[in-house]
Write a structure and sequence with these properties.
Strand content: 15-25%
Distance between the termini: 56 Å
Strand order of the largest sheet: 7-1-2-8-9-10-11-12
Number of helices: 11
Number of strands: 12
CATH class of the largest domain: Alpha Beta
Structural class: alpha/beta
Number of domains: 2
Length: about 300
């Protein structure tokens, strides 16, 4: 039997792994970027691997561990016995046994063990975002929602951006475009700008390097430009050697975008290895450990191709 409390809708909560203040690269002006967990892609070059899983997960920063000779708090705390003494005196994590319960994290005084991902309501997030309201007014900045793929949590993202708009905040979304069209359609009216990743047009290359087809990504872009032609959309492409670092690959994206309705801008972002250390903290191997970033000459040549896109 339902009670009155059951009939009152609970406010949506989002699973967030980071909130970055004073961000200068996630939209116009000074911004606060809210990073949501969960992504349907598994890009080999991903610099935020902690944003891929759809649940909180254990992060282990080995250099912070003060050693089992000094502290053994996490060993008895783990209900799955997934933590053991390592050969170097620090603890080891058996990732196959760990169920991400997070019980060990509070038992670690050095914060070598932490959980990536915590739930928050719209009001809790906006309370943090609005602390820097003066910077947004002076710089033309605001709130950027990113990830992961933020539209993997559509109910929360729509509620967050709608509330931000109602409070006068400038809003932006960074998206892979891989989501149900209904999610994109619902969030678009609450956006002032969109940053849309198009990694490559060739379907085989996309599937091989991201684990998924690009068909829905490209279709969603077409529909976004057709249904919301006034919404400024910036295309972004991470340039990864051996994947899409050719003039032909960039030209194919330019041609697609032109035929799909154009864009406000096209940015090529050079692949980097800044996120490599995060993989070890998650107990994973970095997929592109033998790939070096593209040199400046290559980026200049590819940006000349990208500039052929007629922006508006």
């Amino acid at each position: 039997m339902s009670t009155t409390g059951d009939l009152v809708a609970r406010p949506p909560r989002g699973l967030i792994f980071h909130i970055q203040k004073f961000s200068l690269h996630d939209g116009s002006g000074i911004r606060t970027a809210v990073f949501l967990k969960g992504c349907p892609l598994a890009c080999a070059w991903c610099s935020n691997p902690e944003g891929q899983a759809f649940d909180p997960e254990l992060v282990y920063t080995r250099d912070r561990c003060i050693g089992t000779g000094t502290c053994t708090g996490c060993l008895p705390a783990c209900p799955r016995q997934a933590i053991s003494r390592g050969a170097d005196g620090r603890v080891d994590i058996d990732r196959g046994r760990c169920d991400q319960c997070g019980v060990c994290a509070p038992a670690c005084p050095a914060q070598a063990l932490e959980m990536s991902g915590a739930f928050a309501t719209v009001d809790e997030v906006l309370r943090l975002v609005e602390e820097d309201g003066a910077f947004y007014v002076r710089s033309g900045g605001g709130l950027t929602v990113t990830g992961g793929e933020p539209l993997s949590q559509p109910t929360f993202v729509v509620a967050l951006l709608a509330a931000a708009h109602s409070r006068g905040l400038h809003t932006a979304l960074e998206t892979s475009g891989l989501c149900p069209w209904q999610a994109m359609e619902a969030v678009a009216p609450h956006l002032d700008e969109v940053f849309y990743d198009i990694k490559c047009i060739d379907p085989d290359t996309h599937a091989r390097t991201t684990g998924v087809s690009n068909a829905r990504i490209l279709d969603n872009f077409r529909r976004l430009r057709r249904q919301f032609p006034e919404l400024p959309v910036t295309i972004r492409t991470p340039v990864v050697p051996g994947v899409n670092d050719s003039a032909e690959a960039v030209q194919a994206i330019v041609d697609f975008v032109e035929h799909a309705g154009g864009a406000a801008a096209y940015e090529l972002l050079a692949y980097h290895r800044f996120g490599e250390g995060k993989y070890a903290k998650l107990g994973r191997r970095y997929p592109l450990r033998d790939v070096d970033p593209p040199d400046e000459g290559r980026m200049l040549a590819l940006r000349a191709v990208a500039q052929q896109l007629h922006t508006h």
